[in-house]
Design goal:
Blueprint lengths: L8 E8 L5 H18 L2 E9 L11 H14 L3 E4 L5 H13 L5 E4 H12 L3 H29 L9 H40 L3 E7 L5 H9 L16 E6 L4 E6 L9 H6 L1 H8 L3 E7 L5 H14 L7 E6 L9 H7 L6 E2 L8 H11 L3
Parallel strand pairs: 1-2, 1-3, 3-4, 5-7, 5-8, 8-9, 9-10
Antiparallel strand pairs: 6-7
Helix pairs in contact: 1-4, 3-5, 4-5, 5-6
Length: 370
């Protein structure tokens, strides 16, 4: 497999149904561009392929693959990034087509890209273990799919087992052992976290968890409220590790935690891999759903975060909507948003300037009165 430089030249492609509205298609591609920018890639070509049903063999289709190969050769591309989740056999066929075209390129799907971003940003041992587990679960079926393709090319299922098959079996066993070891390590972390939560319950310490779309300003809000000093950057997935700080509301001391941000179509295996971290959210007494009020897709992102909370079974926890980054707008549509999301006591703040933070503390104190 060709080595990828730190800032790879990337061709992006998104395969969408013909009926998808133009605004949604543009948003999907914009988010993919942001992901690539966070990773550090250089975007040289952006493509949208409209297909009612993705191609069974390559997802993209042979005609589009030929076009991509020609563009890659001309633009010296080093990686093809497909904004979808491909089956193992489809990844194998795309990779094979590019090799046949004498191109030294890697092929990543959406999960590959997210995992590579996670790997760059993980700091703690727990986050690294979680990423390792997600990578194993993502690569496992792909290894098996590659082995099946190799067997078929060597003469079908009834043929004599060759090196490809035995190597695949060895890789499967190795991945299984790695997965079991990683899960045991994460279980130990989960037990420790559970003990900490039990202690907080015993002493009556309330917990508030910050959730929201990635890059909504969750870490900035944690810093502004607790002076915790979490890393902040204008990038997707700038922070992956749970950070906990103490907040004095004027009524009581509470623990405030920040965790991984959500994105559109967050793959289920990534939610599963980050389960121990996300348990902090599931067990919280109150959620602060932080929302970038300046984002043109603000309503869509609210829906997507709520969907992930539902998958985590955290949708029944009381929550406040915190519309952040009011300093970025000349005119904040407070009346409209307050009316639309009245059930979640919307408040408007700027973690950057401090506007609205005292009101937010009062709302938290009021919500936590027991």
């Amino acid at each position: 497999m060709p080595k990828i430089p730190l800032k790879p030249r990337a061709i992006l492609i998104d395969v969408i149904p013909p009926t998808m509205p133009k605004a949604e298609a543009e948003r999907r591609l914009l988010e993919l561009e942001s992901l690539v920018g966070t990773y550090g890639g250089i975007i040289i070509v952006k493509l949208i392929q409209k297909k009612g049903v993705p191609d069974y063999r390559t997802y993209i289709g042979s005609g589009k693959l030929e076009e991509i190969a020609e563009l890659a050769r001309k633009e010296k591309a080093e990686v093809l990034i497909i904004n979808n989740l491909l089956k193992p056999g489809q990844m194998f066929k795309v990779d094979e087509a590019l090799r046949d075209a004498k191109l030294k390129m890697q092929v990543w799907d959406r999960v590959d890209l997210i995992l590579k971003i996670f790997s760059k940003h993980a700091k703690t041992a727990e986050a690294k273990l979680q990423i390792k587990l997600a990578a194993i679960r993502h690569m496992g079926p792909r290894i098996f799919g590659m082995g099946s393709e190799m067997m078929q090319q060597a003469g079908g299922i009834g043929g004599r087992a060759g090196a490809g098959e035995s190597n695949t079996e060895m890789m499967k066993r190795h991945l299984f052992q790695q997965e079991q070891h990683t899960k045991k390590e994460l279980d130990r972390v989960a037990v420790s976290r559970s003990g900490h939560r039990a202690h907080r319950d015993r002493v009556g310490l309330k917990t508030v968890s910050i959730v929201g779309y990635t890059n909504a300003g969750k870490s900035s809000l944690l810093n502004a409220l607790t002076k915790k000093g979490a890393y902040v950057a204008d990038a997707l997935f700038a922070t992956l590790d749970t950070r906990v700080g103490k907040l004095w509301t004027g009524e009581r001391e509470v623990l405030l935690s920040d965790t991984i941000g959500f994105i559109q179509d967050l793959p289920p295996q990534l939610i599963d891999a980050f389960r121990s971290t996300l348990d902090e959210t599931v067990d919280a007494d109150l959620l602060l759903h932080v929302i970038d009020v300046s984002d043109p897709y603000v309503n869509e992102k609210i829906v997507e975060v709520e969907e992930v909370l539902k998958q985590m079974k955290a949708d029944r926890i009381p929550k406040l909507y915190v519309f952040n980054k009011v300093d970025r707008l000349k005119r904040v549509p407070k009346a409209k948003l307050t009316k639309e999301y009245k059930a979640f006591s919307p408040t408007f703040v700027s973690a950057h300037t401090g506007v609205g933070l005292e009101e937010l503390k009062q709302l938290i104190a009021k919500q936590l009165v027991s």
